[in-house]
Amino acid sequence: MEAAQSTSVGTVELLLELEGININSRDKQGRTALAHAISNSWADTFDTLLTADAISADYTTSEGLNYLSLAAQSGITEIIQSVLQLAQFDVNARDMYGRTALAYAVKSGSYDAVEALLEIEGVDIHCVDEQGTTLLMSAARSREVEIVSRFLGLGLGANINAKDENGQTALAHAMLWVSNDVVMALLGVEGIDYNCVDSRSRTPLMVAAEGGFTGIVDVLLELEEIKIDSRDGQGLTAMAYAVSNRRGSKNFEALLSVDSISADYTTSEGLTFLMLAADSGDARIVRSVLQLAQFDVNTRDIHGRTALAHATKSGSYDAVEALLEVEGVDVHCVDEWGTTLLMYASGFRGLATVNRLLGLGLGANINAMDTEGRTALFYAAERKYDIGNTLCALLEIEGIDVSVQDVKGRTALMVAIEERNKESAGLLWKAGG
Question: Which stretches are ANK repeats (predicted)?
């Protein structure tokens, strides 16, 4: 079986000559050597094994895949045709997930494999698996516009707005898999709902904005009845997604042509556009948002975090600096968990930010503890890739207490050891921790 999983036909031939070799052995997934050769697209190994084994229409793996489904999974037309010639299969047989051979061919992304199965009389093109996935949805995920167009030509566009168990249509799947060509093909279907929402109440425009898919956002914004102000389950709009996306500056600019930034807008967690911009870590977006509306820079979300806290948490020094430029910004803010800005900076790869905050005098409260009894030193000790820089900066602060214990009775040294941070542990040991 292991030989069948390799590309060594010679090894397979040698093993087949051994007396007592059991070619019908199965692995934990119920796959035989022949099954492995088929699903892994090794045509030569497949041909060799056929000299000693036979294709049976009754064989299935532990997941219910027959040889035809395995061949379809390979995406190799020649193997599919060979399997079809060697046994009489029910082309619409389903595995334990409700998938047919045609569904696997679509999933493989091979147009020729799909075409080979479409030639079979009685093949079901309307099959839906256990997750509610249609062939058109699967084709959209494959990013193969040729397969999508083939199915649309077969009339599958009549049910274009069908949803899977996650509330996602074929269009939503195309969005998630970033295929402009497939999106364009689907948008051309009469009756398509491009304002449809998934189980999280996200529209295609939100998904595109969240993913930073600039070309798709541009296409959607050209649609006459596109809804730009819809909110998802978290109260986020397409603009909110674009603002909070580190890769969303172009989408942000595109959405500004049809939407606006309001200082009154908040998500269900109390995040303003300024906080969302701070989350992105993009200083350009932060500064743009500040220019577009009059924000209270010290407004807090439902967890007590300000925009500056969000910027610090993002790990972006530039975003932090953009907010520090705002007159009256509170650098002593503490959230509901007792987390200070210095703690956030120490825990999110922010050495430059740590030094900036220390320069503002935040080291005077270096031993402040959050609700779990952790100081900024603990946050630095927990980091796996600190290489000691932040820790060194904190240890140089006059009055720092390395013996502080959290609510679990651990010191920062113990935390570093638990996290297997050898360098941090060494520094804390030398400091008397």
Answer: 97-130
pLDDT of 42 higher than 60: no
Closest to 60 in 3D by CA, of 19, 101, 115: 101
334 DSSP assignment: B
How do residues 382-431 score in pLDDT, each as one tens digit? 887 665 689 999 999 999 999 999 999 999 999 999 999 888 999 999 99
Q: What is the mean pLDDT of residues 3-12?
A: 48
pLDDT at position 67? 86
- Exposure string over 201-222, b if 16+ CB within 10 A, otherwise e: ebbbbbbbbbbbbbebbebbbe
Looking at the domain assignment, is residue 72 inside a domain? yes
Q: How high is the pLDDT of residue 345?
A: 96
Q: Residue 3: is its pLDDT beyond 50?
A: no
Residue 416 structure tokens: 């570093």
Lowest-pLDDT range, 59-73, 181-195, 327-341? Answer: 59-73
Residue 197 · residue 230 · CB < 8 Å: yes
388: domain CATH number is: 1.25.40.20
Residue with tokens 């494999």: 113
Domains identified in the chain, total number: 2
**Domain extent at residue 404:** 337-433
Helix, strand, coil shares of the chain, percent, nearest 5, are 50, 0, 50
Closest CA to 247 of 272, 275, 220, 284: 284
Q: Domain ends where: 106, 123, 140?
A: 123
Lowest mean pLDDT among 211-215, 272-276, 384-388: 384-388
Angle at 308 (CA atoms; ends 306, 312), nearest 5 degrees? 120
Distance CA 198, CA 206 (A): 11
Q: Nearest to residue 143, comparing CAs of 114, 108, 119?
A: 108
Q: Which residue, of 123, 146, 177, is where some domain finishes?
A: 123
Long-range contacts, stretch 74-77, CB < 8 angstroms, 24+ apart: 74/38, 74/39, 74/40, 74/41, 74/108, 74/113, 75/41, 75/105, 75/108, 75/109, 75/110, 75/113, 76/41, 76/43, 76/110, 76/113, 77/110, 77/112, 77/113, 77/115, 77/116
Query: How far is the C-alpha of 309 from the C-alpha of 26, rounded, in Å?
Result: 56
- pLDDT top residue among 185 and 82: 185
Would you say residue 233 lies in a domain?
no
The Cβ-side half-sphere exposure at 227, using a 13 Å CA radius, reads 14
Instruction: Report residue 87 CA to chain centroid gap.
Output: 41
Q: Which residues pair with 134 in a beta bridge?
A: 128
281 in any annotated domain: no
